[in-house]
Amino acid sequence: MPNRHDADDEDDDLLEDELPEEDQFGRVRYLELCRELGISPASQILKYLELEALHVEHYGLGLKGIRALAGALRINQNVTVLRLADNAIPDEGCGELLRMLLDNSSVTLLDLSGNRMGSAGSKALADLLMSRNTVLRSLTLAKMRLGDREGVLLGNCLENNTALRQLDLSSNDLGEKTAHALGQVLMVNLGLTDLNLSWNKLRPRGVAHLAEGLKPNLTLQVLGLGWCGLQDLGAASFGVALKINQGLVDVDLSGNQITLEGLRALAEGIASSATLAAIVLDNNDLRAEGGKELLHAVDRNKGLVVCSMENTNTSDQIRLAMEALLEPRRRLRDKLHAAQMQQQQQQQQQQQQQQQQQHLHPHQQPAPS
Question: Which residues contact 39 (CB under 8 A, 6 or more apart)?
Answer without folding.
Answer: 4, 64, 65, 68
